[in-house]
Amino acid sequence: MLRALILSTTMLIPLGVSSQESVCYGSTASGSLDGGVKLPGEGPNFVSYSAVAGLIGRTYVHSSVRDIIVAAYKALETEQPGTVFKYAETGLSSGGTFRPHRTHQNGLSVDFMVPVIDENGESIQLPTHPFNKLGYSIEFDKAGVYEQYHIDYDAMAAHIAELHQQATSRGFGLWRVIFDPDMQKYLFSTEYGHYLQANVQFSERPSWVRHDEHYHVDFEIPCRELRR
Length: 228
Description:
By secondary structure, the chain is of the alpha+beta class. The chain has one domain: 2-Layer Sandwich (Muramoyl-pentapeptide Carboxypeptidase, domain 2). The protein is 26% helix and 21% strand. The protein has a six-stranded mixed β-sheet, with helices on one face. It has a four-stranded antiparallel β-sheet with strand order 10-9-12-11. The protein has a two-stranded antiparallel ribbon with strand order 1-2.
């Protein structure tokens, strides 16, 4: 009877959700993290960029960031049916230096691979494997085309807008989104363009890496002063 009660109670706890609250310190470029949580490896409409990266601990975030991301993917199941997404590098469980990135240090930075469609307009996953540096060596042209893959700007814009909505509903926000400035006009031409321009800060200057195959999102969540 007791075992049955424990099992039934356990089944009420959503998968991938923990009661653990993270604490972030400092900034994305100089920070640390207590109680980092791992993003789920996959869901109905999303996957991680690398199972191995998950195993070696490169997919940890602040617990509130995890909740925002998972909730956004859940909402997109209805808003963007049939569309698949992929997240990439996040950070370490305790934060700190995360090579080769210059940020990703306090659990508030997440890279997302661009959602893509094939020549038939079908939503597919951008390939990420060791031979293309887990997707980071892919180079799209200025129109967002690489081989048979075309960036799905509608899905990407919907995703960023949903991340913002999920963050603000929890009292947080998005600090910035880094994506190739020359390609941002395609995002702003989607049905979500006005919302993004009114509510989300996009980088206006080119970054030290191009950010065409992925978009970097920094979440705005209060952090404590960095401990020395």
